[in-house]
Design goal:
The complex is a heterodimer of chains A (378) and B (286). Chain A is α+β, with helices and mostly antiparallel strands and 378 residues long. Chain A has ten helices and 20 strands. Chain B is globular. Classes of the chains: A alpha+beta (378), B mainly alpha (286). The structure holds adenosine-5'-triphosphate and magnesium ion. The site of magnesium ion has 2 residues of chain A, from helix 2.
């Protein structure tokens, strides 16, 4: 029997979607090009049922593009999109059953809040009475029971955001897509809405893809995070994974405060490495991937709160020079310089012992939970 | 007084709170400005006022004692078959042309705003070009072109009028459409509305004031056109301006003033309507 490559591939993909019951939505080698520039991909994403998956990345990395491809508003140049194993790559948005919340909410300005929320149900020819009850219930869920007769411009930003959410949720979409839904709110409201959004999502058990460039938001809300960088996926994992075990230089730098120090691996035992950061200073570290054997270059990733500053007599690697000192009240942030001229940060509690340390002085450092990233992957 | 100084003049209450100058300069400026504007209006509106005045004349003369005002020339207008049929023809022509120009204008504007992307400015400028060309030239070119084609003369006239109305409808509707967030359309689309339903339920209601203004504007332009009609109308297709034009070549009577006054009233009413619609549009944005 002869099968052409695409047919074989398609049936394999179908099988994959079929077997992998967990994956509601699969992006299979999705690419988006505008002219000759590639805006996205190729990316592979598997979305699990009921999870909140976050697309995190700097501006222009392709988050909105990914979301619009999923919603059907943008057609991918290459690749396939599978919803519960069904190929929806060329299905028009009205038939996709996705609830999309836009960054600017995109409410219908000429319709009341009630009519805004009812829109999707009306399109689905739901009977009038049922529309009324479902709209009312939805408004209660988002905590706005009394605004049905108002117009969007009569609501505050936070209220509009909730209406946009209600409008997307009321159609009971197979997947909820949120494009930076909190970025237009003030800091306080943003924090409150994070928890609220997550609470509603978990209560309804709705599979959600959340887009943000704010890592705090991503960490607080997500089951899993996809870190994106210039159109590609940099790393996928739980918030803890991303923070604790960045796989690339970009991931280490983008997430949290990180200092990167280059060095040579001089010893390896299982995951535990010893890295020479110059002038014979040896730092213990944990390898994030395989293949960082003796003699290879590695990047050490430390975080300010994981470096302990030591002074004469204490157990640390001596020979670090204080390059800068920033008093932050509760804590003091030091910029330290290795004898090899590489800088890293160290944050210590604001206690007497450290308060009088001045730039130029020599101190030591003890590295805890240092991670080693291979140079080749960065 | 320089304009910028006028513009920066404080509102009176703001001044009062701080200092009470002997001579309030800003008030002098305001007065001068008001006088200038008033003079401008007199200059613009005086001819119209004279026409309106003349239309109520009791006899052939253009000046009369206002207490002798009469509706005589309005009656003459209504009694004149040629004027009334020209008026009706003009209204019909303007209706057809303005509706066509608005529909075509909407489609063009939608294409320019939603699909041209970075080339939007080029598209817009191209659409505006017919506005820069003197109507008499457009008319002449159409005459040369359309007489070569086997189309009825009425169609030629309509085409000519649609052409001179289009830049205005495209410009007006483009501006309106630019105020509609593409995401709002996309939202409706993802909520299950087909392209057609999105147009009907979201886009059109949001640009309706702009579209109606464009329609009225096109109507006025078509109604007042002389040059296109002069070249392209065939026998039995006399528009009101042409009828007036040929009438005043032979005689002058206040009936023309009466007809003109009717048109002025029509245009003022339309203008008020546009004003309301556009006001409505601003109110509908946040
Ligand atoms: N219509 C388009 N034509 C050309 N390039 C585009 C178009 N839309 C997006 N791009 C490019 O694709 C890339 C990804 O854009 P996208 O909007 O997905 O970024 P994003 O991650 O959502 O950024 P942000 O955080 O700023 O919203 C960008 O470099 C952008 O310039
Ligand atoms: Mg975006």
């Amino acid at each position: 029997m002869l099968l052409s490559a695409p047919v074989l591939r398609r049936s394999l993909v179908r099988l994959k979607g079929f077997n992998d019951v967990q994956s509601v939505l699969t992006l299979d080698k999705i690419v988006k090009r505008y002219g000759t520039t590639t805006a996205l991909g190729p990316v592979d994403i598997q979305v699990k049922k009921g999870e909140l998956l976050t697309l995190l990345g700097p501006s222009g990395c392709g988050k909105t593009t990914t979301l619009h491809i999923i919603a059907g508003l943008t057609r991918p140049t290459e690749g396939q999109l599978l919803l519960s194993g069904r190929d929806i790559t060329s299905l028009a948005p009205p038939y996709r059953d996705m609830g999309l919340v836009f960054q600017n909410y995109a409410l219908f300005p000429h319709r009341t809040i009630g009519q805004n929320i009812a829109f999707g149900l009306r399109m689905r020819k739901v009977p009038k009475d049922e529309i009324t009850t479902r709209v009312r219930r939805m408004l209660e869920i988002v905590g706005l029971p009394n605004v049905a007769d108002r117009f969007p411009h009569q609501l505050s930003g936070g209220q509009r955001q909730r209406v946009a959410l209600a409008r997307a949720l009321v159609i009971e979409p197979s997947i909820l897509l949120l494009d930076e839904p909190l970025s237009n709110l003030d800091a306080l409201l943003r924090k409150k809405m994070r928890l609220e959004l997550r609470e509603i999502q978990q209560r309804l058990g709705i599979t959600t893809i959340f887009v943000t460039h704010d890592q705090d938001e991503a960490f607080e809300m997500s089951d899993r995070v996809i870190l994106m960088n210039s159109g590609n996926i940099e790393q996928v994992g739980s918030p803890e994974d991303l923070y604790d075990r960045p796989q690339t230089r970009f991931a280490a730098q983008f997430i949290g405060e990180a200092s990167l120090i280059e060095g040579d691996v001089v010893e390896r035992e299982g995951e535990d490495l010893v890295v020479d950061i110059g002038h014979g200073l040896l730092v213990p570290a944990r390898a994030v991937t395989a293949g960082m054997g003796r003699g290879t270059r590695a990047i050490l990733m430390t975080r300010p709160e994981r470096v302990e500053l030591t002074i004469a007599g204490e157990d640390g690697i001596a020979g670090m020079r204080i390059a800068k000192r920033v008093f932050q009240g509760e804590r003091i942030l030091f910029d330290l310089e290795t004898p090899g001229g590489q800088n890293f940060q160290c944050s210590v509690p604001s206690i007497e012992k450290y308060r009088d340390l001045k730039p130029g002085q020599q101190v030591g450092a003890r590295f805890q939970e240092c991670r080693a990233i291979p140079v080749s992957r960065s | 007084m320089p304009i910028d100084q006028l513009a920066s003049a404080n509102p009176p209450h703001a001044n009062r709170a701080i200092v009470e100058p002997a001579i309030d300069l800003s008030r002098v400026g305001r007065l001068l400005f008001t006088v200038a504007v008033a003079a401008l209006y007199v200059f613009l509106l005086a001819p119209l006022l004279i026409v309106i005045y003349a239309s109520f004349s009791p006899d052939q003369a253009n000046t009369y004692d206002i207490s002798r005002a009469s509706l005589r020339w309005y009656r003459a207008f209504l009694d004149s078959d040629s004027f009334v049929s020209a008026f009706k023809f003009s209204v019909m022509l303007a209706l057809i042309a303005s509706v066509l120009a608005t529909v075509i204008g909407f489609v063009t504007a939608y294409g320019i705003v939603r699909f041209l992307g970075k080339k939007r400015e080029i598209g817009r400028s191209l659409a505006m070009l017919p506005m820069m060309v003197p109507h008499i030239l457009i008319s002449l070119s159409l005459l040369l072109l359309l007489t070569q084609l086997p189309i009825p003369e009425m169609a030629a006239l309509v085409i000519g009028h649609v052409l001179i109305c289009l830049p205005f409808t495209i410009a007006g509707i483009t501006a309106s459409l630019e105020g509609v967030d593409a995401d709002v359309e996309a939202a409706a689309y993802t909520l299950g509305a087909s392209r057609w339903v999105v147009l009907r339920e979201v886009t059109l209601p949001l640009v309706a004031p702009g579209v109606l203004s464009a329609l009225i504007f096109a109507f006025i332009i078509s109604f007042g056109d002389v040059y296109i009609a002069l070249f392209l109308s065939g026998p039995g297709m006399t528009t009101l301006p042409i009828e007036i034009f040929s009438y005043i070549q032979w005689e002058s009577s206040p009936v023309i003033a009466a007809i003109t006054t009717v048109q002025i009233v029509m245009i003022v009413l339309f203008g008020l309507l546009i004003e309301r619609l556009v006001g409505l549009r601003t109110a509908m944005r946040l």
